[in-house]
Amino acid sequence: MKAIQFDLNIPKYALSKAMGKVNPSLYVNSPLSCLQLKEVDVPKLPDEEWVEVKVKYGGICGSDLNLISLKDSPATSPFISFPFTMGHEIVGTVSNKGASVEHLSVGERVVIDPILGCKARGVTPLCSECEKGNDNLCKHMNNGSISPGLLTGTCKDTGGSWSSHVVAHESQIIKLPSSVDDANGVLIEPFSCALHTVLQNPPEENDTVFVIGSGVIGICVIAALRALDYKCRVVALVKYKFQGEMASRFGADEVIYVTKGKEYISQAANSFAADVLYPVFGEPIVHGGADIIYECVGNKKSLHDAIRFARKGGKIVLLGLASYVENLDMTMIWLNELEIKGSFAYSTEQFRGEKKRTLQIAVDLIAEKKVDLSPLITHTFSLEEYREAIATATNKKKEQTMKVVFEP
């Protein structure tokens, strides 16, 4: 089968990183690229508790683009095994299964929870985090019966959705009802990231929430707040008009556009009934602000804005893929006693009086028509068109891109 794979070769990595800084297209359009379309074998079932899934759609995530452009911190490399087939946003049908798998049938439509925790790794007893349902914090993501990998799509043994077939442990499989179409199915994973963030860090009634960034994750945070019926005011900070329209469509009460100047700072401050103050030199600060900030970008500017626009005693939740951030002024964190919380992927949540996996909650909300995520899909490509697909996912303004998916 054809698969888009990432392989870490140190000389190639070094040269590609240097050339990519001059011409970003060379991260993909170069013989030295770590990313290649290859002919590979269909992944084998590691044991009788695994299933094979034929991919219908595989999404391109912002984390995938970070990896391709070599921006990821090396700190995650012990939890990856090379070469791996990319893609952790997956919807498809069961095409094969191990003899021990009784609750699934060939032909059933499914999504995959890509976290590779203790159950998938054959580790017993479960680590303390997996025992609590926090597979995303598993202590064994670099050992067990399969190779290292935080997620399906970063492990060389499982394959990924940027191919025609992928394998998953039966515990990772979630069935899709007929009321959830494939377009929503491929978006269940990013929507679950947002659900996990909101359910773990919920707003109080009448809070003002500020969502920084209106890519897919930012829009999914807004959608999650509305699908979960939180009675809060939602303000979105966006870059482009099409993102603002999408933010409003999914439930933002107000949209503020980032400008090259400082006008947006005053606009946001007015929205929060806060004051803009000017130090003797440097960036303006804001006295007052939002109750909760969901930071969905992960660069220096967005992190600075998150700190700037949080009220005294407010909370900042980090979803954006920040790694190295130079010269970030952290004064307001201690001066305003801000709470900073990271959020990674999804796990098990308290929902309607019971514990449920985040991806199952996402499926349920979509099935109940609380949200329809399908408008987020703006482009579809074949695997052979991967260079064009990645360029489209990267050039959001030019292509008015939200979610790009592969249809193998």
Description:
- By secondary structure, this protein is α/β, with parallel strands linked by helices.
- It folds into 2 domains: 2-188 and 357-406, Alpha-Beta Complex (Quinone Oxidoreductase, Chain A, domain 1); 202-342, Rossmann fold (3-Layer(aba) Sandwich), CATH 3.40.50.
- Helix content is 28%, strand content 25%.
- The protein has helices spanning 10-22, 62-68, 118-121, 128-131, 182-185, 188-200, 216-227, 241-249, 263-271, 300-309, 331-335, 358-367, 386-394, 396-399; strands spanning 2-6, 35-39, 50-59, 84-85, 89-97, 109-112, 165-169, 173-175, 208-212, 233-238, 254-257, 275-277, 285-287, 290-295, 310-318, 339-342, 348-351, 354-357, 377-381, 403-406.
- Strands 3, 5, 6, 7, 8, 19 and 20 form a 7-stranded mixed beta sheet that branches.
- Helix 6 packs across helix 7 and helix 6 packs across helix 12 (358-367).
- It is globular, with a radius of gyration of 21 Å.
- The mean pLDDT is 95.
Fold topology:
Blueprint: E1 2-6, H1 10-22, E2 35-39, E3 50-59, H2 62-68, E4 84-85, E5 89-97, E6 109-112, H3 118-121, H4 128-131, E7 165-169, E8 173-175, H5 182-185, H6 188-200, E9 208-212, H7 216-227, E10 233-238, H8 241-249, E11 254-257, H9 263-271, E12 275-277, E13 285-287, E14 290-295, H10 300-309, E15 310-318, H11 331-335, E16 339-342, E17 348-351, E18 354-357, H12 358-367, E19 377-381, H13 386-394, H14 396-399, E20 403-406
Parallel strand pairs: 9-10, 9-14, 10-11, 14-15, 15-16, 19-20
Antiparallel strand pairs: 1-2, 1-4, 3-5, 3-7, 3-20, 5-6, 6-8, 12-13, 17-18
